[in-house]
């Protein structure tokens, strides 16, 4: 196991490498996990409260409305393992519905978000063991030994799975199945396919919070990698790619310009873009197919009345 300091150092090196490689290739792209520094996580929290951003409130509504059903399917004496826990706000709903919960393992790349959430949860649920793991949930994760024999309920809300491509998503579901064990289950929130007139504003809101979230990546590059990006010379762009079934987020150059990062020059033509995020949208049948391709059973799906969002319980066949 790495120490937190080592994990942070790895994340830092990784950022430099990914940014230099990402700005060098065509089309340019930088992995979306780098959007979540302290400021990025704060802006994302703000996004979740926006009128146009339907996923968070819809998923919370589903978790609240179906908490008893979910608890019944989860059973007693389980540990929740959350992939990308952020503020753990949604988990709080689950924890409250699962009085026989053994432990809560929160995995996130933001050490700040983890410690803030852990303090709050330990206060609200004094009997609950809260275990935090700083790291990328896509990497191999070591769960504490004492949880080896505890049944595990994975929790992957927020349609974070939408950031991955379809094959990567299946890969994640397989890795999660192995981590959660032969008697494990996975509760996963997945955003549904819908009209562009709802999707585009959700990723390009009228208050400009999503724009600030996306452009904050440039601020982070300036601060951590000695970048010279002038934020006024770049724009946030969100488009729906119907063929790929996903929202695509870009940072687009407003003019011809040159920028340096770690002393290396990069020239941008006007209109040239850096791809910073994908957010895939699925039909329930796609979710079932992906789950089954990864060896899970798609046991149950809960959907809101407007068919905006789904919460899915994946179980093991045996
Ligand atoms: C955290 C990946 C689920 O795709 O809706 C929101 C990220 N980006 N607005 C999403 C996001 C811009 C969000 N996920």
TrEMBL record:
It comes from Dichotomicrobium thermohalophilum. Keywords: Methyltransferase, Transferase. Gene3D superfamilies: Vaccinia Virus protein VP39. This is Dimethylhistidine N-methyltransferase. Residues 16-315 form the Histidine-specific methyltransferase SAM-dependent domain. One of its GO terms (biological process) is methylation. GO terms for molecular function: methyltransferase activity. PANTHER family: ERGOTHIONEINE BIOSYNTHESIS PROTEIN 1 (PTHR43397:SF1). It comes from the Bacteria.
